[in-house]
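Quick log. Single chain, no ligands specified.
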Amino acid sequence: MKRAYIDFHSHAFADKIVDKAVSFLQDYYGIPTEGRTGCLTDLIKTESKAGCAYFVLMVSATKPSQVTVANDWSLRVSRLSRSELSTLSGLSDPARPIAFGTLHPKYMEMEKELSRLKAAGIPGLKIHPEFQGFSLDDPLLYPLYELIGEDFILLTHIGDKSFSQDNYSTPRKLKKVLSDFPRLKVVAAHLGGYNCWAEARKELAGSDLYLDLSSTLRYIDPCLLAEFVKTHDQDKLLFGSDYPLGDPQQELDLLAASKLFTGALWEKVTRKNAETLLSSVGFQFDFGK
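-> predicted structure:
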């Protein structure tokens, strides 16, 4: 199979925490993982089976003391050679990870850690305000946004299992951050807000940011999805599976079944937009055979 797609939103966990992490995700969101284990080997196999050439791998530190540990694991994954990935997966041409790092606003050496990640070629950062316990527009985060500048992609979770304006991450709070930091290269996960797509459509559609489609296609009203596709810059929509909560092949099937993503738009959403964004921070692709 020729691997062509880029999954811009996936998760895997180190062996010593994987069972606990996956159980937490299933319990919190009430979404079964259907046998997807959450370990790196299973992720590589699942992405490869779906025809993905690359997948963006996310980590997040729920407290400051976890930042270095989480980033160390991402760095180890990012350094795996093609032959090592083949050995892990048993595949001759496996999908390859693009590991993101993470930070926490109470971590005391943010500049030093960003320098370490940049030197290692890490192209982006993931934050999850709901799990990390801070508001997206908290001034405590502003030094981090300033340090990130245009050097990294910033992917942020938006929304929650139940939605209110008191949530740590909302489309409205992200809109304020975008206004205050227009240079940021932001990806808003879950089409701008899991379980709050009407507000995301109002506050974010048409803004200068990327939206990924992870944990969206199974739940959003089809008419609202069509409105997003109509009103948002189609060069800034990204395919994402949210593995292990989602399966990349199933998500690709849903993308096709919507009949909104055809022809050139299919190519943009499943690969080209991700290539453009990742290349803008210096990531180099090698699609090989």
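The chain has twelve helices and nine strands.
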